[in-house]
Amino acid sequence: MPASPFVPVIPAGGAGTRLWPLSRRSRPKFLLDLTGDGRSLLQSTVERLLPLADHPPIVVTGVDHEESVREQLAEVGSAHVVPEPSPRNSMPAIALAAALVEREHPEAVIGSFAADHLIGDHEAFLRAVGIARRAAEGGDLVTLGIAPTHPATGFGYIEQGAPDGADGASAELPSGAHRVVRFVEKPDRERAEEFLASGRFLWNAGMFVVRASVLLDELAVQIPSLAAGVREIAAAHGTAQHQEVLERIWPRLTSIAIDHALAEPLAADGKVVVVPADLGWDDVGDFAALARQLREHRKAAESSEGEETVPDAGDVRVLGSVRVDAVSSRATVYGATDRLIALVGLDGISIVDTEDALLVLADEQAQDLSVLVARLERHGLGHLR
Amino acid sequence: MPASPFVPVIPAGGAGTRLWPLSRRSRPKFLLDLTGDGRSLLQSTVERLLPLADHPPIVVTGVDHEESVREQLAEVGSAHVVPEPSPRNSMPAIALAAALVEREHPEAVIGSFAADHLIGDHEAFLRAVGIARRAAEGGDLVTLGIAPTHPATGFGYIEQGAPDGADGASAELPSGAHRVVRFVEKPDRERAEEFLASGRFLWNAGMFVVRASVLLDELAVQIPSLAAGVREIAAAHGTAQHQEVLERIWPRLTSIAIDHALAEPLAADGKVVVVPADLGWDDVGDFAALARQLREHRKAAESSEGEETVPDAGDVRVLGSVRVDAVSSRATVYGATDRLIALVGLDGISIVDTEDALLVLADEQAQDLSVLVARLERHGLGHLR
């Protein structure tokens, strides 16, 4: 059993332009119920972590979403919301949470998990976090690595060392943890295939478990002003000066991802550990991923059966209350309008029906959606983002 | 020059379920502007025929559409609207028009042309009708036959005899006219390919030119009650009894297509003539045909050009005022809503965006739309037809 108290940290940010117009600036991905189970991704993330939490989870989010986040959290349990005055990428958000935890619980281990990913296997997740917590108590930065199922080019990779002290450095690690050799940024297809074939590489899902004090002390070595800044904000927490201190310091913090600020340099120093895990994890990064999720987990839309002259509806999944009828179609439909949506002969198409925008997208080109969203502004349609 | 006066007849009916939800029961295909030139198919049909008409064209339409038809006709010129109390297929409609013409102009030749087809080559059309009128003055039933461009299975075919009297029966025909051997109903693919290869077969586009009195006299032989019925209705036209006579007789008239009632039996008797013609004709029978038309005739939607990082919009045609943005898509969009329609990676897709129904259809399965429309009723959505 881990000895130190555990505090979950949930950075809730990100534009999610690859799920537009389902996700909008005003309603980002983590606030959406993308599984149809009645809970947003944020709510599911908090619920998954609550059984592990020795103190309330900390959710760091933009001031624009603070109110929506508080409303959603009120439905699932106790959590502490920390608003960011402006987006500064993941390192300042996680470091601020670490500084708040360090002040109250100096021995605590934090675990940082994105607010907008899906985890299918809760048991495996709890087991992996348990191993990661024990490894983190030894002073390492610990990450969960996802066993890759295909040569994905959309994720960064983690190269793990040999297990069980064979590389001379892992002897002290708990079973199931491996020293990390290096982090690798999103590879091209060829390298991704090499990674998959080697069996040594894992997907980087951005899940980090570490003592709050270790994170801040290591950050103080890498980017001293950032560590000092968040510690100063945390010190002012609960005082009359807090808002003034936050607004003065926050905009000057280095905007950087935790991977670049800490994980990569610490891996080079042999201070990072990975716990390989098969969690049924999905970052639901675009409509192709979401369609795959819904195809696995949700039943097909009602279709007219039992009549010889009616071709099969095919395989149509619906998220939302919209009414759909289909002939020979494999498609995913998102909508809550009161229109009928009729589909004929579609193969691998996603449709998002909203009041002010309609998207029709071929799943295999789901990545290209960001191109279209990026130019909304230029076409005078920025209000639709 | 033809010697007899010419009166165009335009049956304006048909459900057009293969263009739903663009066409509806309350707004059938012939009332729609499907080319974006500001005129409905009915208006274009009337305009095309007006230069030939010695007396105002007669438009026969259902009572439900009488008002819309009158409004549209007021914009393009003088025409006579004859309402049908109920749909009885094409023969009663054309025969009633013939009876009205016969009463006023006993020597007149009528030409019957569907209200919802497109003709691309007006010159060729005028030439072909001129030949057909001269042939019709000889007492034959004359049809225009479309030179087939592919082995279509959605049309009936006309087999023409040898030209120039070689078959012993065509010596008296004007140049460009051929005796018809037989009419053939929609063939399967294999027969359609044989027809195309033979060079003897033409598409039956339902265009008939004939003396009004010949049509009625021949009909009196084939279906005596039908000929007598329409002549009785025509005799009452303009009298106080007209409505009573119409409502008494019309429901008892045989519901039958002109092809079965007259063209097929008269062809067997050697009394039908065809004028082969290359008219740029299209019956715009489904969304695949409409997409083809719009691809040939309309410019692509505006797309963002000149920026290296933006993939091509592709080839997107838009009918209506809806705003469309696309990435790498070949698609056709119909809509007048004020939503943005965004397309990514589509290939051969038609999208119809209306207030109460959205259709997304693969053009290559356009024929299957009728299956879906047919079951609207069963799903309690009959009001959407």
From TrEMBL, chains A, B:
Keywords: Transferase
InterPro entries for this protein: GMPP_N (IPR049577), ManC/GMP-like_b-helix (IPR054566), Mannose-6P_isomerase_type2 (IPR051161), NTP_transferase_dom (IPR005835), Nucleotide-diphossugar_trans (IPR029044)
Segments forming domain MannoseP isomerase/GMP-like beta-helix: 327-376
Official protein name in the record: Mannose-1-phosphate guanyltransferase
Highest taxon above the source species: Bacteria
Boundaries of every Nucleotidyl transferase domain copy: 8-293
Keyword Transferase part of the UniProt annotation: yes
CDD domains: GDP-M1P_Guanylyltransferase
GO molecular function: mannose-1-phosphate guanylyltransferase (GTP) activity
Pfam families linked: ManC_GMP_beta-helix, NTP_transferase
Gene Ontology BP term (one): GDP-mannose biosynthetic process
UniProt keyword Transferase present: yes
